[in-house]
Amino acid sequence: MAKSKTCNARNWKQSYISVTALSSSSLQSLLVPPKKKIIKPRNGFFLGHHCRPPSVWLLALFCFALVGLLRLGWNVNTLISFSPYPCLQTLSIPHLTGELGVLNSTQRHHAVFGVQRRQRNQIVDAVVIARILGAALVVPILQVNLIWGDESEFSDIFDLCHFKRVLADDVRILSSLPSTHIKTRPVEEKLTPLDVSPQWIRARYLKKIKKGGVLLLRGLDSRLSKDLHPDLQKLRCKVAVEALKFAPPILELGNKLARRMQSNGPYLALHLRIEKDVWVRTGCLPRLSKEYDEIIHNERRRHPELLTARSNMTYHERKLAGLCPLNAFEVTRLLKALGAPTSTRIYWAGGEPLGGKEALSPLTREFPHFYNKEDLALPGELEPFAHKASSMAAIDYIVSAESDIFMPSHGGNMGHAIQGHRAYAGHKKCITPNKRHLLPYFLNSSLPEAEFNRIIRELHRESPGQPELRASKGGRDVTKYPVQCTCKRKASHMIT
């Protein structure tokens, strides 16, 4: 128990700040290393060749005294700046059983979850469902991806001991079923509907798990409601950001690559979603050539089950609705419009793009300082992770989370997880492309470049690094918008 608290305390040794929106000039200043300035001595308030007149000192003393009186006599919270910080240490679930529908945990029942690869949110919800049912959680089984063929286990990607330790007060986690249940035929559930509540979960699964002792759930993506009690939302954040720590070999290499990027100044992390499987799943086309479009059409006909987008929409309709990833040409235009100079250093995260180097050529021509993990790693460093897409994605996650600015070219679970991680760590800057509104301007070839740039900057005026401050917190994915997992603390009391 003590170790778990120690692990949680480590994440508090940070300062957390709110960041105002970025203009194109401030984006440029973030991406260009500052030049060294020679500071010349000058007269200041306390420094100078002559003493200040007594009236100045009296005025200063009066101001200090006034602030002291205000702090003692009035509530001046509105006059003192606040910053968000993580506050997950007080989960009041045990005494809210009736309200939350959470069972007192006897740990006699076991929940087994099969989750799709690289689906962190499914692991998060598996923990929450186990907590709701009062069941012990068997380490989630990662299903083999049909395209990547990665057979990694949970412990190959995440630090299992850390996962158990951090969640020890919330859910009992087992590496495997106990010997008393090995021969037990689990109650299997495949058709969990979308957006279910804790009450629905109890009504549906409680009798089954009591009768069989083992419950097997598959395909949990977006099944559990996003509107849960605040303590269950905090548990979601705790799993996503604190418990799901990458395995030591992945973490070590990811941090090495991040330091190599940081050694030459600020950098932007770009999560490019232009792999073959992304074009197949989204129902979109890369538009590199007719040949590549035909490859995607054929793959989609052979594997219609891979299509996750709405099947009743045409490619053009999906594109205009903002449901397609931005390709390299569109990302290049967007970055230039936002004021990124050609000297911008970019780390691009993602798998092998359909079309290879040709697909990346618009970016590499405009931004020559363009790197990925293969460019940064020394010979042999990536060998242990060869043919392990999940481990490679984890390395990308680490380098992206440490960047000065993060921008995804499309949504998706990884992009959302990184965005939430950065928001949780103090609203680190993130540019979310407003695809639905900007694409008509991309398609308008008669629009002057200066006017195009002005419109793009206006569309993204509040995108980079702006905290999500909303009156209503309902219906939002807390792992992407972790506002319910942060509290407010006076800036003067922040732990740094």
TrEMBL record:
- One of the Pfam families matching this protein, by short name: O-FucT
Q: Which InterPro entries match?
A: FucosylTrfase_pln, GDP-Fuc_O-FucTrfase
GO BP, sorted A to Z: fucose metabolic process
Where exactly are the transmembrane stretches of this chain? 126-148
Q: How does it sit in the membrane?
A: Single-pass type II membrane protein
Q: Which pathway does it take part in?
A: Glycan metabolism
| Superkingdom assignment | Eukaryota
Q: Which keywords does the record carry? A: Carbohydrate metabolism, Fucose metabolism, Glycoprotein, Glycosyltransferase, Membrane, Signal-anchor, Transferase, Transmembrane, Transmembrane helix
A single cellular component GO annotation = membrane
Q: Name one GO molecular function term.
A: acyltransferase activity
Give its localization: Membrane
Please report which protein family the annotation says this sequence is part of: Belongs to the glycosyltransferase GT106 family.
Q: What is this protein called?
A: O-fucosyltransferase family protein
Q: Which organism is it from?
A: Hibiscus syriacus (Rose of Sharon)
